[in-house]
Amino acid sequence: METLRQHIEQITPLNDEELAYVKTFFTLKRVRKNQYLLHEGDEVKYEYLVVKGIYKVFYVDAQGKEYIVQLAQENWWMTDYQAYFKQKQATMYVQCMEEGEVLCLTLHGREKLSADLHKMEHFFRVKLTNGYVALQQRVTLLLSSTPQQRYEEFAKLYPSLLQRISKKFIAEYLGVSRETLSRLHSANNTTQK
Amino acid sequence: METLRQHIEQITPLNDEELAYVKTFFTLKRVRKNQYLLHEGDEVKYEYLVVKGIYKVFYVDAQGKEYIVQLAQENWWMTDYQAYFKQKQATMYVQCMEEGEVLCLTLHGREKLSADLHKMEHFFRVKLTNGYVALQQRVTLLLSSTPQQRYEEFAKLYPSLLQRISKKFIAEYLGVSRETLSRLHSANNTTQK
DNA sequence: CGCCTAATGTGATCCGGATCACACATTAAT
DNA sequence: ATTAATGTGTGATCCGGATCACATTAGGCG
Question: Smallest Cα–Cα separation from B126: which of A110, A158, A78, A104?
Fold first, then answer.
């Protein structure tokens, strides 16, 4: 739980009393590899703050193809936000790719915290702001770039993930086929040598 | 300025005193067709709340191709948010497509309002939440769908824009060539008849 | 330790959509 | 009203990346 304090205090300081109050809204959960935190069709009870591990948020189209909407690692928040905020059934899955633990927060908890503590409303606003900017960047990337550029951008933003997850999933995140991604490497290696 | 009250009160009620205070941070600006509110390389002084008119937020790649990141109409907020929040030079343009007026707010104003009035911090958080969800939907759409599906989705979400702006710009928003979009129509009309 | 399954590389083929090129229609400008 | 500028449809060609198919390697895990 110490993680939580650090995470929040990157944005706003909390005194002990406030922190104690905040903590009452979170529950810690251990997660094993391949375990689902959320399944399509589920009610979306929680959003999750990743304490440890790697997770993917993805959906599956009519043909059974998977598309990764978000790859989350330490200190990232994740869930099917559309369903979470609107309290509808999930259209996405959240699955663990590397075991770890997450802190769970209900929508009610989030709203209560925001209403009771101006600081926490501020915290969530700042987090959302960052998330919004990051998503907008992803939109511009998807609109305009080649698989090559997408991969380079990804490698720059998340060098650690390159090591920790398989290329297949990176391809699904980039919206590129596994094969095309693989061929990029060969092309790169020959030129850069 | 009455628009502003209505807009904010969709999310949180304000008393007269609060409203008066809020108003001091906004300035109204008339905008003519084709006028730029923001130019690549500019310092990003403001974000804009659209009172009237249609605007596009777009960027231009090395080949001179345009990509529309956002199409904004009444009651939408817009600017180059990446640059606005991080106070960097703009990488995008904001241009008017149908004349109207906007309310301008500085980053300092936004932060001051949020700090002084918990209600306003709440307002911005809710707006950001909605924006985040909408952007995530756009990401899933760009990741997985055909031009056909993108167009249908767009037509469903923004039927009014279909009438008011040219196909060329819709194509740039969807990340599809003008010609491909045009051919979709022909295909549609023959089948649905 | 070796088996089975998943991850990766690589060739061959195919196809959707970009691009180029032009005709026609519509709108704006003086 | 005339001319220019911009929007729209449509054909012809081309190419990047998806798809299919298989060989190779690397990891779990019994």
Answer: A110
Phi-psi region of A34 (alpha: psi -120 to 50; beta: other; left: phi over 0): left
**Protein-nucleic contacts, chain A 141-170 to strand C, CB < 7 Å:** 166-168
Confidence band, pLDDT 50/70/90 cuts, at residue B193: very low
Q: Are B96 and B32 in contact (CB under 8 A)?
A: yes
Rounded (10°) angle between helices A2-9 and A16-23: 120
Contact B135 A140 (CB under 8 A): no
Nucleotides of C under 7 A from a protein CB: 6-12, 16-21
Which residues in chain A show pLDDT less than 70?
A: 187-193
Q: How far is the CA of B178 from the C1' of C20 (A)?
A: 13
Determine the pLDDT at residue B190. 47
Judged by phi (left if over 0) then psi (alpha if -120 to 50, else beta), residue A31 lies in beta
Statement: the pTM of the whole predicted model exceeds 0.85: yes
Instruction: For residue A153, give the amino acid letter.
Output: E
Are residues A142 and B142, on separate chains, in Cβ contact within 8 Å?
A: yes
Chain B hits for A137, CB-CB cut-off 8 Å, are 82
CA distance A178 to A170: 8
Q: Which of B65, B115, B144 sits opposite A67 (nearest CB)?
A: B144
Q: What are the structure tokens assigned to A93, written together?
A: 């899955």
By CB neighbour count within 10 A (0-12 exposed, 13-18 middle, 19+ buried), where does B29 fall?
Answer: middle
Distance CA A79, CA B120 (A): 26
Output the DSSP codes for A67-128.
EEEEEE-TT-EES-HHHHHHT-B-SSEEEEEEEEEEEEEEHHHHHHHHHH-HHHHHHHHHHH
Are A128 and B133 in contact (CB < 8 Å)? no
Q: What's CA A61's distance to the chain center, in Å?
A: 20
Q: Read off the pLDDT of each residue in B101-122 and give the average, rounded to a whole number.
A: 98
- B57 neighbors B72 (Cβ within 8 angstroms): yes
Helical (H) or strand (E) element with B156: helix B147-157
